[in-house]
Amino acid sequence: MIELGLLQITDTDGIVLSRRKIRRTAIQLGFAEVMAARLEAAFSEICRATLTPNEPYSIRVSIAQEKWRPSLRMFFSGLLKKPGKNYTGRPFNRYSVTQNHNGLFQVDTYCLLVDEPVLTTEFLDELRQELAAKSRAELMRELESKNAELNLQAGNFIPVPFLDYLGKESIVDIKAGDHVEKEITVLFSDIRSYTSISENMASIEIFEMLNNYLEYAVSAITRNDGFIDKFIGDAIMAIFASPDNALRAVIELRKSLAEYNEKQKQANGPVIRIGVGLHHGLVTLGTVGTKTRMDTTIIGDTVNLASRLESATKTYAIDVIISGGVFQSLPYPDRFHIREIDTVRVKGKKIPIVIYDVFDCDEESIRVSKLEFLPKFNEAIQLYKEANFKEALDIFMAGQEKCPDDTILPLYIKRCNTFLRIPPGSDWSWVTGLVEK
């Protein structure tokens, strides 16, 4: 037996609320749904048959199971309008009313078994309406849950920020041809010497290495408000609304990668070095394909140039190159370690761009040497642009003595020596052709 305590009933609504509590309690006791519903109906019937309308009552209720039947006992603190014994209610209920020695009216009832007379049409209609309302509410909750789960899983293939850019709430809302123009920062990264690293590894080892590396990369990108547009083998293409966040993500990734490589060295595993290119500009984000097969993509010169800059890190033997578009869009460029290294023209393009080396994550000795030599380095770059190759060469040579690991200095030393032997024509500019893809 379980005590429900005092139920306060002042009107018909009070009866409805109390009967629902009785039903929930009966189900908690292990009664079948139909038995709980019958017990609930018995309570409602007794209240309506015995209580004086619009009079407040306090009823102490207990529920038990007797001879496999759910039973209900109620003590009323107020007067009943029909005191008596052995009332017969609806076909599925039996109850009796007595007055105990304390002056309280006591009502005992029990519900008949399932195979005894059926429920009344009135109660069945009421019960059906309640179940229908409950089913609709549960269905809506289930649909909302499934939709949220679908979007969460779809986010593994189509990034949620991509949907936001397109102004779509769900993956089911997109269709081929949806597109929008945005000014964003594009990141391209690639594993250096990937072929030589992987040629001595089994396929399963390659997948394990790539997925371990991508965990670091994706975490750094998402923590800085970027998202992955696509994986291209060992390469990554990522998108950022802010160049500042993109650069922070690159620095965080390189620091995480240094920790990963330390673990790899201890385990005699291959270490990973990456090249990264960043460019900021206008792109078109959208979907391509057909009704049966679609993919999201980002197109535009900004994407192509970011890819070219990533490839250029091999030429300059540095890890990160950013464009002038990124540098000029940084709100506080002095917070990073950045230096101008060249002006280049991409094959097929007329307008040259300035490119920069980001050396925040270089080894400490190299980073310190680059910082100390930076004023003289900038001076030498300017002399080189003015075709003053002799003075520029002297500075570059002095810099190489101080920082032999600076890979940019040998490039300019070679250029200056070449131009001193074979002077350029009058139409010479300091722009370098960037042809490697």
At the fourth CATH level, what is the homologous superfamily of the largest domain? Nucleotide cyclase, GGDEF domain
How far apart are the first and last residues' alpha carbons, in Å?
81 Å
Helix content: 40-55%
Strand content: 25-35%
CATH topology of the largest domain: Alpha-Beta Plaits
**Tally of alpha and pi helices:** 12
Rg, rounded, reads 39 Å
Summarize the structure.
The protein is of the alpha+beta class and 437 residues long. Helix content is 45%, strand content 26%.
How is the secondary structure organized here?
Elements lengths: L1 E8 L2 H17 L4 H18 L6 E10 L2 E8 L10 E2 L4 E7 L5 E7 L9 H34 L5 H7 L12 E13 L2 H5 L4 H21 L2 E7 L2 E6 L2 H24 L7 E16 L4 E6 L1 H16 L3 E4 H6 L8 E9 L6 E6 L5 H22 L3 H14 L5 H14 L10 E3 L3
Parallel strand pairs: 10-12, 13-15
Antiparallel strand pairs: 1-2, 2-3, 3-6, 4-5, 5-6, 7-9, 7-10, 8-9, 10-11, 12-14, 13-14
Helix pairs in contact: 1-2, 6-7, 10-11, 11-12
Describe this structure in words.
With 437 residues, the chain is α+β, with helices and mostly antiparallel strands. The protein contains 12 helices and 15 strands. It has 3 domains: 2-119, Heat Shock Protein 90; 176-361, Nucleotide cyclase, GGDEF domain (Alpha-Beta Plaits, 2-Layer Sandwich); 366-432. 45% of the residues lie in helices and 26% in strands. It is elongated, with a radius of gyration of 39 Å.
Sum up the structure in keywords.
437 residues, nine-stranded mixed β-sheet, six-stranded antiparallel β-sheet, Heat Shock Protein 90, Alpha-Beta Plaits, elongated, alpha+beta
